[in-house]
Protein 1
Amino acid sequence: MNKAQSITRGEVMLQLDKNIETYTQEFLKSIETNWQPGELLPDSSSESFFEDIKVIQGQSENLSYDLLAVLIGDTITEEALPTYESWLVSMDGVQERKADGWMKWIRGWTAEENRHGDVLNRFLYLCGRVDMPKFEASVQYLIADGFDIQTGNDPYKSFVYTSFQETATNISHRRVATLAKQSGNIALSRICGLVASDEARHAKAYKTFVEKIFEMDPSEMMVAFEDMMRKKIIMPAMYMRELGDKVNSFANFSDAAQRLGVYTSIDYIEVMQGLLQDWKIENMRHLNDEAEKARDYLMSLPDRLTRIADRLRTPTIEHKFSWIKA
């Protein structure tokens, strides 16, 4: 598309909608062959059910306090899926009568994501170290409170967010899987590894959507990318809180993740650098003046954030979460 042409977000979404079937086949797995939560945890009809639970509980005793806290926080985030689906459905262009493919994508993505909260929730229930009613209250809070990730109904900004967030979630789950394996918790390691794999596919899908938007509407997509990075990408867990507490628990959760190296400020920077490379931002052409300035800001941001990250110090004191049994 040349500089003289213009296109609306709705038109871009309709163009992408024409290829949703291809994207669905490429980035989502068949339900008939996909893993299911019931395959990863003890079978309640098995004669060895109670012995299998004892094995999980024995292995879970070796999970560090911080690792268990991060696992619970990750699970609360996954369980708030209804909020994320309703947000994606509200994007401009999704409700267009001719954009039926977007609803198919959102339903398919939601169906895959739904398994994550299911399997992690069941693991927490079986491991014996979690106060489930307090954990469940935090899930209810997160859904009831809602969240504002500052995308509005803009699909361009929303896809920047999902590209970033799915990549970050992949990192977190993958590292929890590694730490769980090191502690001897084989079941948890396998669960988190499979969840991480899903998140990696989903991240690739949303990055592909942005890549295609850059081909059709590069200046507006660039400005949307810059806007999201100026605001900073916040995780859904930003609004997580514990029972009876009006102050959110994200800072304490984030400190635990930072201490473990599960997800750090450096990871945030590296995710952004990955997006700059994947979308070939440095060499993007056909940009208007506003978009050129946006590109300059984006290219300089990693170095600025690195200087800030180098000065950060992570608290060494573990917060006592109400979710974890004494």
Protein 2
Amino acid sequence: MDNNIDNDKNVYEKKVNANIEPEIKVTNKRMIFFNFALILVIFIGLFIYMLNVDGLSNILQLLNSVDYKWVLAGFGSLIIMWICDTFCLHIPLKKIYPNQTFLNSLKVTMIGQLFNNITPFCSGGQPMQAYELTQTNKKASDSFSILAMKFIIAQIALIFFTLLVVIFQFDFFLNLFKDYVWIAISGFVINIIAIIVTILIGIKPRIITFIVNPIINFLGKIKILRKSDEKIEKLNNGIINFNNQFKKMNTQKLVVFKVFIFSILQSFAYYSITYMVYRAFGNSGINFWQIIPAQAFLLLIMTFVPTPGSGVGAEGGFLLLFSSIFEKGTINMSILFWRLYTFYLPIIIGALFLIPTKNKQFKNNKTDSLN
């Protein structure tokens, strides 16, 4: 019986490994070139818009008046965000693979930052992270499961943290977004539904397959979806593996709790960046905790923009939400600085981690603590 189980696991692992290359098809040279070209066009468009609206002399004057201690604080928040993101990956990886190093977890994290920002809907990050982990002898199935678990814990932490702040700053939030409250509510509901679906996969996978499989079959019959049988098999295998990993992680409540805490700190650091930009350009009158609901709302808007790094939507959303908070003449430069922190720097730094290095071979020394 044990041999049969091991054989099934090996067969599944081979299927997952075989599917990694197709999963990272978003990273082919043509797509990367197109995405970088689009990012460059967005950057140039933003710069031209700033020149037309603010004028070169006003931009230079504003740069001379920047409070650079807040600029440095913004960089500090960005680094803290990356470190927390690394711990969210490193903690469960270390539990399964005792030889996992923090440096490798950092490398995988930054590669995820790069590909999340150069692909629509952050779709390229997880496949590339899983691929990178397989290069140090991590099982692809373990990698995808840990990344999926990391994602759901991060989403729960994000919503928990945001709701908590919104409750304490509800009057300010309601006044600031009185014309857009329904969008904010819709965004929260969609994220909560996504969390519920993921949890159902972890505890009641048959409910998901019962609902989703007929839909895929139907889309295949009406020729909207190609190779529907293969997609169903791939989906079912993924659900089974995630369910198994969910059960294992459910027995490791301390691991989940640690990841949750670091996810909260990561959200805190991310939201802090907007406040640092706000103060860097001499703005005052709005406190840190009032900035957070606005930034959370912006993050919800960005989730639904189908461009690399939510380009155009992120800039437009920032202008829409913060123009009444930032002093006149500072909003456009604030957008540029904010995107530098949250978009351009992650791409630049993440690309550096793609430079080949001589890595020590990781033994596939997998612990039984989660088995």
Protein 3
Amino acid sequence: MTAKAEGKAAGPGFPEFITLMAMMFSMVALSIDAMLPALPAIGGALAVADPNDNQLVISMLFLGLAVGQILFGTLSDSVGRKPAIYAGFIIFLGGSLLCIFAADYEVMLAGRALQGVGAAAPRIVTVALIRDRHAGREMARVMSFALLVFIMVPAVAPGVGQLIMAAAGWRAIFVFLFVFGAVSFAWFALRQPETLAPELRTEYSLRRIARGIAEAAGQRAALGYTVALGMVFGAFLGYLNTAQQIFQQLYELGALFPLYFAALALAIGAASWVNARLVMRFGMKFLSLRAALALCALSLAFLATLLVTGGKPPLWLLMAWCLSAFFCVGILFGNLNTLAMEPLGHIAGVGAAVVGSLATFIAVPLGTFIGQSYHDGVTHLVAGFAVLGVLIVTVMRATERGGGGAGA
């Protein structure tokens, strides 16, 4: 029996499968976004001197995620998808406990890194699991539906975090993450069958991993679209790092911050919904390139506007740009990931690991630099999107000229 046949023979139906996959993706999003309203409280309780350093609570999780993806993605090709995801859940739960009882900022950051390493398993191995069952535009469709469901989590996560913090303090948010991880672990273990048949598994060795990484990195389409994905991710991480400061401090929205954050998260969700319906007709390359061009044009035009407004435009104007830009980001996320994975179906585990890890390693320094550049305005954010938008278009065109993603 093939891996695809095994994965389709039993287990959850399509709606439950999509929901379960979305929940697995959501562990990362929930671990990020539920924290945002609590960043000043965490920094104050753990004696952080520079407010910008509070952003490291976000960045360290992504650093752990980058390391964990290459670890678990390659491991899943050897031991199967489920055991690799089990190991990740256990590490995530351990990191959550470390954060719950952290007495200083260094321990907190270590716990966040462990959470990132652990969350990488359900996040990245799930992509390989989907790739075991689907390919091409059908995979893009499944990914878009999964992203549509999972985007509801970041839409409500800051509000949930704010309510939990108001009721029981910021440490209770980590208790909530622990419970969410435990429930996800149990649901996955009980309902999802293994999708990688034993005869398709490969021996785990550093030499094989190196060969797999070299093969994935040597594919022009995989490498080019992964670099473009990392730049999109880096721009978005710059937003995540400074969202709380922009909305709660610069615009003084206070308790309304989760509502504005939710509106922007839903713009990405709307893009995923639209993409799921258009990708089968127009293809991933067509939609991705036009989304990248639109993102570039919107950001460059808005950057020019900031020269007039002194870096602090009216809130409605900022929201208009954010909604438009994040809609483009939503189109790019699912399609670029799928375009990068398309030539790697025969090494789906290590392929997903390389794509996810390299994209995250690109994104973390870019997003951290954008975030650390914050200073009472949004010029840093818009400039980051504008510059990276130009680079994204350049990389995509260079990849396509080389024949990358042909027919996608």
Protein 4
Amino acid sequence: MQSGPSASWDLAGRLHVRSEGLDPAQQRAVTAELDPFEPGPPNGSEPDLLLGRLARPELVEVQGPAKDRLTTAVDRDGRLLARYGGHWIQVPAPRTTPVHLHLEPGLAVRSCWRELVRPAAHQALRATGSVALHGAAVDDAGEATVISGWSETGKTEVALAMVEAGAHFLSDKWTVAGVDGQVSAFPVGVGVRGWVLPALPTLRASLPPRARLRLGAARAARVTALPALDRARGVRVLARGSGLAAHAVELGDRAGLSPSELRTVYGQSDDPGRRSRLSTLVVLLTGADDRVRAEEAPPEWAAQRLARTAAYERRTYYDLQERGAYAGLPGRAGARDAAVAEEESFLTALLDGGVRVLRVTCPFPGDPRRVAEAVAALR
């Protein structure tokens, strides 16, 4: 299979990514996943993260799925491999630098990006003195606010409400923080839910056509499916299945935008790779009622929360490492706990250096403007 040209990406001076020998489809997928950062020719320096071509491996042991959808293997070179869609990709050992990921031609990059490639990039960041925070970020005049919290607590929605109020979008879902106290964007798409659009009039008026079609289809499916699911809830045997299906319908009511598309919506022409001083960290907690309560919180508490939610988001990556430990590969055991300890220590020092830490308890789903206003009142 034909391979594409080599390319490199500079992620705000925090991470140097290079691709070598990937097939054209893989190269296009990597370029899309690394938006808003633009590819350029290799600059000759050693990359922090290398995405390269994997020659057909000679396997010596295979570990099949253990109720986790994962298949792994060890080859004659002692490498741990994971299989996605019938193709293999190398799983780098933790605490190794630079981080190398080799892919078989034909492997669909998007099938393993969230579970393997993105956490490998996070591993490479730690080696360069930075950490990927599980949170969205906006900035205003060089001062950044990161909105963090557990999955499905409203990070994206609150960040977008702040952008609607005049802040500039920086990053969604993941944000890079450096030892210098500055944060920058990490490349990840923006998921926009249909129910939040009435609170985001600028975004609602300027959604790209593709996103409008996706949300329209989701609404149609919701109208069709939910009455049937309500009827199914009356039958005890189907109750659990209908609840899961209803949740899937609700989560499907979203459209993905690239960071560049979102920047276009809000007319941003600033540098997507800029760095801003971290001035405020917001940790969202989902409350049991409709009230929004905001208060200052200790840096140590926030650092622990941030380190552990990030590790949970990377849980498949750490599951892969444990499979390698089972196979007797050195340096694989305990990768999750080591990363949590390292990031918690890093973040405690970072947040103790003049960053305002806010704990905000709020409903989800809910109007994100109320949360943005509560945060603004305390800054």
